[in-house]
Specification:
Blueprint: H1 6-30, E1 40-47, E2 65-73, H2 77-106, H3 115-131, H4 136-198, H5 203-220, E3 223-226, E4 232-236, E5 239-243, E6 246-247, E7 250-252, E8 258-260, E9 263-264, H6 270-306, E10 320-321, E11 329-330, H7 351-357, H8 366-406, H9 410-445
Antiparallel strand pairs: 1-2, 3-4, 4-5, 5-6, 7-8, 8-9, 10-11
Helix pairs in contact: 1-9, 2-4, 2-5, 2-6, 2-8, 3-4, 3-7, 3-8, 4-5, 4-6, 5-6, 6-8
Length: about 450
Amino acid sequence: MTSAFSGLTNALAALNVQRYGLEVTGQNIANANTPGYTRQRAELAAVGPATGVAALYATQHPNGSVTVSGTTRLNDPMIDVRARTEHGDNGYRQTTATVLSSVETLFDEPSDHGLAEQLNDFWNSWAAVANNPGDLAARNVVLQKAASLATSLNQSSANLDRLTQSVAQQATAATLEINTAAAALAQLNGEIAVATASGTNTNALADQRDSLLMQLADLTGAQTTVLANGTATVSIGGQNLVASTTATTVSLSPANQILVGGTPAGPAGGELQGLVDSLTTALPGYAAQLDAVAAALANTVNAGQTGGYDLAGNPGGPLFAGSTAATLSVAVTNPAALAASGAAGGNLDGSVALGMSQLGGSNSGADAAYRSLVGTLATDVQRAVQQASIQQAVTNSVDELAQSSAGVSFDEETTNLLTYQRAYQASSRVLTTVDEILDTLISHTGRVGL
């Protein structure tokens, strides 16, 4: 038989449920600007009347009420997966574009003081010697221009080396950040598993988990699977990084290959892969092209010099020592030792010097090699920046989709506040009314009717 006090019970349950809804809404509003927070919603469920066969002549009373069946995180798992994928690609593209742009700043072209202009000045200085082979001042200018070329190539090589070291340090720092995030995720997996098993609300833990997963996606392009109990498994390049409460260490081999637990990982993504690709492909490639410029300069100039004769009529020798951008130097210190003549004893002949002045137009000379370097770099930078810009736009678009479902809308939360407030007021009114009815019933009859 239903108790007359069931109305009080129902009204009290309604008050508690509406209050909980208000609390959840207030929490959403309070965390509207909290990074990584996912909007939540109180899920309400009706509690039906008790079932059974009523006793003869018994009066049936409604016994329905309301309860909170759970608190849902309003994220879209499919969008979350796509967002992590796009963030991994974006981390890779942005890192690649940044590194290549840094390389471009090392070669100030076109410029009045760049290597291209210095090469041009060097060849022009030989033209002055060809016009007056016996002029020591003109010969000395050639040595000065040669020294400037060697110094510029040395500095460009050193700058490229410093940039490579900086990128390597960034890659090492990225591995430390990855390992820290992986360890935190493994610990969080344990907390989520325990909370899920005990029926505790895991929404706050899930927010922390998703933030760590996004961080790992940015850094590594990690592949993630969220299990039914809320824990996450993460892999990089086919190798497990986090499984349950175990995190594996990420490191770099001496050859700058990504290792997960000491095992080489396949191509991944994210910031780390962008840094690794720069260290293993892009930067060594530009260094090799710069060395090719130095080698072409040394080979063509030295070939011309050793085939000519100096001011004293002696056979000429190499003008440059070294064959790489880092080692190139001027081997001649006496301007009279420069070979300008093409005939033995013909110290006033300038045929070799004239030929030297025309080397700038050679298809296999230093100028052509340097134009190839600058052109390749410009193309690579333009392509990388364009790809990074496109990927950033795609990533922003996906982030907006995720925010539309998981982000807090003040308009919507204000509406919810009014809804719960009105429901709370109505429940309170029901409670007051039932109380008044019971008071009247007790006062006039001395007993509570059934």
